[in-house]
Structures are given as C-alpha cells and as structure tokens.
Design a protein that fits this description.
The strands form two sheets. The protein has an eight-stranded mixed beta barrel with strand order 3-4-6-7-8-9-10-11, surrounded by five helices. Strands 1-2 form a two-stranded antiparallel ribbon. The chain is an alpha/beta fold. The radius of gyration is 19 Å and the shape is globular. Strand 4 and strand 5 (70-72) form a beta hairpin. The protein has 13 helices and twelve strands. The chain binds ligand C2E and magnesium ion (3 copies).
Length: 282
C-alpha cells in the first residue's frame, strides 16, 4: 500500500504496486516529453556573502513549466526522474545551462561568480562522472572554479565506495564541493572528515526560528564552529528573517541564501539584481 505521512514525506510502498501507478506512468511519459519540448527552466537563488553583503553566486534550481499543470515542484518530479533514470540527461542539461549562464555573468564583470548545481544519487553513481563534468565544462568553455556541486548526506551514504575518489578529482579541478541539507541525513560526523568538502550548507530546519528556539541556536552555533575548525565554509539555507540574519552574522557564518534576500528567480531577474548591485545591509 502507499501511504504518505504529511510533513516528513516518508513513503512506504511495495515496488510492484508503485510501478503500476497510472499517475506516475503518466508523469513519467510527460517528463520524457518535457525534456524534448524544453519545458524545463533553470531558476537562480542568490547566495550572499555575510561579511560584505554582496552576491557571490547562486544555486541553480530546476523548474518545470508543465503546459497544463503549470509549475511543477522539483520535490515532485526529481524523485521520479531519479527512479526512471531521466535525471541523468536532465541533470546534464541543468549543469550545461547553469554553467553557460554563469560564464556570461563572469564575462560581464562578475568575475568570481559561482553557480551551485545539485547532483542526484543516480548522477553521482554514474561511472566516470568527473570526466563527464569536465566534458561539459569544456563544451561550454567555463573554468571549473565557476561551478559548485551540492550533494546530500544520503547520496554519500548510498555511494560511499568510490565517492571519495570522485569528489577528490572534482575538487582538484577547482570545483567547490558542498554537503547540502547538513544535519538531516544519516551521515555521521566522520563523513566530514572522510569527504573533501569545501562548503557545508546548514539545512533550513535549523535556521528557522534560530533566535527563539534555544535548541536550534545551540546546533547552529556548534555546527558553524565545527565547520570552521575543519576549514569548511558555511552557508545557511532558508534565511527568512532579519533576526536570523543578525544571528548568523554574529556567529560568523560565511554566506546565506533565503527568501529574506530573494526567492529563486529566472536568469533575467537575477541579472537585473546583479547589475543593480543589490546587497544585504548588515
Ligand atoms: P535544495 O538543494 O536544498 O534547495 C533549496 C530549496 O529550498 C529550494 O527548493 C529553494 O527554493 C528552497 N528555499 C530557499 N530559500 C528558502 C526560504 O527562505 N524559505 C523556504 N521555505 N524555502 C527556501 P526547490 O527549488 O523547491 O528545490 C527543492 C529540492 O529539489 C532542492 O533542495 C534539491 O534537492 C532538488 N533540486 C532542485 N533542482 C535540482 C536539480 O537541478 N537537480 C537535482 N538533482 N535536484 C534538484
Ligand atoms: Mg541544494
Ligand atoms: Mg539544501
Ligand atoms: Mg533541501
């Protein structure tokens, strides 16, 4: 049987029933069509440096403009794309699109702009992933320091063998390696030691209400310090209030992203924001 627990989004199912779900089959068919018809778009959410208040880069977040259903959330189609393998061509398209865009922004004067792209488990377990990424960077003509890759703890737990070598290759090129949604997965602290991360992204669930929630405050303070002691940069996700921002600045968190500064936006809006020089007042 299929059961969804609201909030946490746990799903329990038996594989054969899952395969038979007609809604999923329909969604899968339209995902395939969507790739051909170019219904996907990359949105960008600015990432802001907390010591100067300036935009240093952006996270690339895929959007699906379905002709009938309208905007479909990645939370809905990424898992299915993952299951069907469509995430591989889709993920490569996102990488290519985001890198090409970031290069245009670099060329127009934002010379250290970096774009962060999410990798799924299926993409990450592809053989010769680092060669594929190098090919994409070369085809677009961008320097590897233009790119950051975000991986969640669960991806690393599932692909531990070989992952360290792959990440080392990518890191050596100058690609920023980030652990995403830190604190929500199953990884132990030893992962921070074993994997060659450059950046730790603290999950939104610890950031929210950080000024009124004593437990979140304790976790945030400790994680920022831990990360710094391990020579990692820290980005806080999902910053929504001035109070959260003040706390993060005071704790010397390195960067933030969140609705307080901007939602994920189309490339043209991102460009306007860059050229207007929008910044955080700290
Ligand atoms: P994520 O990588 O952790 O991305 C951050 C999510 O938090 C985004 O949701 C973003 O819109 C949302 N967010 C940012 N700031 C705030 C805030 O202040 N408040 C709140 N409530 N939310 C905020 P989005 O765009 O719906 O993406 C959801 C997830 O889908 C991503 O989580 C990522 O895991 C996955 N995803 C998105 N694009 C891609 C992609 O191109 N490839 C892969 N493999 N996964 C993707
Ligand atoms: Mg991410
Ligand atoms: Mg995240
Ligand atoms: Mg997340």
């Amino acid at each position: 049987y299929t059961q969804k627990l609201q909030g946490n989004n746990y799903q329990f199912y038996t594989p054969d029933i899952n395969v038979g779900s007609s809604e999923e089959l329909e969604l899968e068919a339209s995902l395939r069509r969507a790739l051909e018809q170019k219904e996907f778009q990359v949105y960008y959410q600015p990432i802001v440096n907390l010591s100067c208040g300036k935009i240093i880069g952006a996270e690339a977040l895929v959007r699906w403009q379905h002709p009938v259903r309208g905007m479909v959330s990645p939370a809905e189609f990424i898992p299915l794309a993952e299951e069907t393998g469509l995430i591989v061509p889709l993920g490569e398209w996102v990488l290519q699109t985001a890198c090409a865009q970031a290069q245009r922004w670099r060329d127009s004067g934002f010379s250290s702009f970096r774009v962060s792209v999410n990798l799924s488990g299926r993409q990450f377990s592809q053989p010769e992933l680092s060669q594929r990424i190098v090919q994409i960077l070369e085809s677009v003509g961008v320097h590897p320091t233009t790119l950051g890759l975000e991986l969640t703890e669960s991806i690393l737990v599932e692909n531990a063998t070989g992952a360290i070598a792959t990440l080392n290759e990518l890191k050596q090129l100058g690609i920023d390696i980030a652990i995403d949604d830190f604190g929500t997965g199953y990884a132990s602290l030893s992962y921070l030691k074993q994997f060659p991360f450059d950046t730790l992204k603290i999950d939104r669930s610890f950031v929210s209400d950080v000024t009124s929630d004593a437990q979140n405050q304790a976790i945030m303070t400790a994680v920022i310090q831990l990360a710094h002691n391990l020579n990692l940069k820290v980005t806080a996700e999902g910053v929504e209030t001035e109070a959260e921002l003040a706390f993060l600045s005071q704790q010397q968190c390195d960067a933030m992203q969140g609705y307080l500064f901007s939602r994920p936006i189309p490339a043209a809006e991102m460009e306007t924001m860059l050229f207007r020089g929008k910044r955080l007042l700290l």
